[in-house]
Amino acid sequence: MNISDELINNLQSLSKITLTDTEREKVKNELKELLEYMKILDGLGTDGAELLSHILSPYSVFREDEVKPSVLAEELLSNAPETKDGCFAVPKSLE
Amino acid sequence: MDICNLTALELGEKIRSGELTPTDAVNGVIAAAEKKDKIYNCYTSLEKEQAYKLAKEVEKRIKNGEVLSSLAGVPVAVKDNICEKGKLTTCASGMLEGFRPPYDATVITKIKKAGMIPLGKLNMDEFAMGSSTESSVIGCSKNPWNTDCVAGGSSGGAAAAVKSGEGIIALATDTGGSIRQPCSFCGVTGLKPTYGTVSRYGLIAFASSLDTVGTVAKNARDTAALYSIISGKDDKDLTSKDTEKFSLSELENRSLKGVKIGIPKELLGGIGTDTARCIESAVATLKALGADVNEISMPILNYTVSAYYIIACAEASSNLARYDGVRYGHRTFRASSLEEMYINSRSEGFGTEVKKRIMLGNFVLSEGFYDAYYGKALKVKGLISESFEEAFKSFDYLLAPVSSGTAYKTGECSNRSLGVYKDDIYTACVNLAGLPSLALPCGFSEGGMPIGMQLIGKAFDERGLLSVGVAFQSVTDYHAKTPEELI
Questions:
Q1: Which of A38, A40, A50, A53 should we substitute to test contact with B (largest number of B Cβ atoms within 10 Å)?
Q2: What are the start-end ranges of the E strands in B234-348?
Q3: From residue B470, how far is each of A17, A24, B123, B464 by CA, in Å?
Q4: Nearest CA of chain A to the CA of B366: how many Å?
Q5: Would you call the peptide bond into B306 cis, given omega within 30 degrees of 0 as the criterion?
Q6: Alpha helices in B117-166 (DSSP H)
Q7: Which of B11, B238, B322, B337 lies at 20 to 30 Å from B145 by C-alpha?
Q8: Are A11 and B336 within 8 A, CB to CB?
Q9: CB–CB of B204/B320 below 8 Å?
């Protein structure tokens, strides 16, 4: 498995992460080693096998539409780096 | 009396009898932590105010004649990825520096209702990703048996605290072995319960289909007592289920005559001679107690590590997408746009191991690779689950090592990432199948380091597992040994 610079750049973009030069080298080498190891999966026949997403069969749970206490808005804002008028404030995203 | 020398049930008894108060218990843990934590580095934070307040409340409740649990008044340390309202909860990451959750996790609500006192947040690998606590933003927790070695991970702080006497009992989490491996490395008892038995509401997610909240304790009886408190269906976690209630007395004096225990031979591969010797000795003990112990072949387990890392990292890449600097956690000062804010906040806040796993997760989910990696891994997960189901038609429990050897030396993991990942073969297969597993000390290496084994049970058979654990610990004393050079 070739871990090209292009692949690393693409993965950085998908992950919204930038690696430092040192990290890049380390991550590149470790991913290469790991993906090489994972080639073991190619040798395993899984035709017809089911994809198991959930161990417990998931099902929807409903409740009556009654107003119940939740978490207060002020508490939810309490960890925000910046707020304005009861909203989370962030750098401008639209011109 | 050193309060931390007591088991949780012993302390609970002394509080019930009036010999000690909950405030005495809190004072005892704080004194031990203040004395020892500079050596063992078990705690990311130890906020005392809430604990003292709760202690007084519990004293009042006892005085008013309220019937509380057998662990009422007992301080419990909490792994730093479990939310406690108003208390620092950081996942040992720069990304959550200063974060104080606005709510309690359900397990915290339950332990408070039972009269227990959450005290101290325990060190861990960053976002539970690791096997040594070395990726923690405060550095690794040291092994109480040898401080040149790590406590293990990701719940290293929990295991080290309970063995070193900095704590009495702890809540921790296990996604791929993160309770069982540090318990094995430190010589304490750990329970990874069945997926769905303990609510994950308030557990900061790593891999939501694999994460479980469990216990780290001095013995199986303490484990059972805490498990009883934290388990049960929770409306706030739609993956949680009703659980069987049982009393401690139901676990005692269980005859193991005719109990069938299987050892997956694929999990005996790669273990060191000391571990092999300890497993053999545990088998002999179980046979002497009447159990039939035989090997079983489960070849699909050889694909555990690949399937686990693909699935766990895929889920992590999704779960950790929420850390964007907007609503909580670290926000960069270097941001001239929203996009830059996301990228720089995440790049500054996360450590390298976390970044690597997020990137791997995005890789296996991306176009062109999804079927070959993620789709394939989900098929392997299904086959592993079926293999365990098949095994449990012939056996009541399965027995396996927890790791290939004893605790890693500090620094050892950084140069052998794949080697360390491969050690997860023993534990991660259980998470993929959603089954319960109890890690028990079963011996020591030639060098005096603890070695543990795990007993794997059928889904929702925590009662059976714990009763075998109690029986094993009634004729062995590995769990009761303490390091000679303990501070």
A1: A38
A2: 260-264, 292-296
A3: 48, 48, 28, 10
A4: 9
A5: no
A6: 156-164
A7: B11
A8: no
A9: no
CB of B133 within 8 A of CB of B154?
yes
Residue A75 contacts B, CB cutoff 8 Å: yes
Return the active site residues of B. 79, 154, 178
Sequence-separated (6 or more) residues with CB below 8 Å from residue B402: B177, B180, B181, B183, B184, B426, B427, B439, B452, B453, B454
Phi, psi of B401 (to 5 degrees): -65, 170
Best to test chain A binding among B103, B301, B339, B352 (most A CBs inside 10 Å)? B352
**In the block, residue with structure tokens 């997760």:** B361
Out of B359, B378, B418, closest to residue A17 by CB: B359
Q: Which residues of A fall within a CB distance of 8 Å from B417? A: 30, 33-34
Res. A70: pLDDT tops 90: no
What's phi and psi for B340, nearest 5 deg? -65, -35
Collect all residues with Cβ–Cβ distance below 8 Å to B177 and sequence separation of at least 6: B131, B192, B402, B403, B424, B426, B427, B428, B430, B431
Rg (CA), chain B: 21
- All residues of chain B having their beta carbon less than 8 Å from the beta carbon of residue A5 are none
The two counts, helices (H) then strands (E), for chain B are 15, 13
A73 touches chain B (CB under 8 A): no
Residues B358, B347 contacting (CB under 8 angstroms): no
> Distance between CA atoms of B444 and B280, rounded to whole angstroms?
13
> Min CA distance, A71 vs chain B (Å)?
7
DSSP-assigned beta bridge partners for residue B170: B77, B216
Torsion angle defined by CA atoms of residues B181, B187, B189 and B195, in that order, rounded to the nearest 10 degrees: 0
Amino acid B108: pLDDT: 98
Q: What Å distances lie between residue B66 and B12, B15, B72, B113, B276, CA to CA?
A: 15, 14, 11, 11, 49
Instruction: Tell me which of B359, B367, B381, B415 to substitute to probe the interface with A (most A C-beta atoms closer than 10 Å).
Output: B359
pLDDT band for position A63 (cuts 50, 70, 90): confident
Angle formed by the axes of helices A5-15 and A21-37, nearest 10°: 100
Mean pLDDT of each 10-residue bin along chain B, 487 residues long? 95 97 98 97 97 98 95 98 98 98 97 98 98 98 98 98 98 98 98 98 98 98 98 95 95 95 96 98 98 98 98 98 97 94 98 98 96 97 98 98 98 94 98 98 98 98 98 98 85
Evaluate whether B119 touches B51 at the Cβ level (below 8 Å). yes
Cα gap B441→B324, rounded to integer Å = 41
| B-contacting residues in A 11-70 (Cβ below 8 Å) | 11-12, 14-19, 23, 26-27, 30-31, 33-34, 37-38, 40-41, 44, 46, 49-56, 58, 61, 63
B14-27 core/surface letters (b: 16 or more CB in 10 A; e: else): bbeeeebbbbbbbb
Does A92 lie at the interface with B, CB-CB under 8 angstroms?
yes
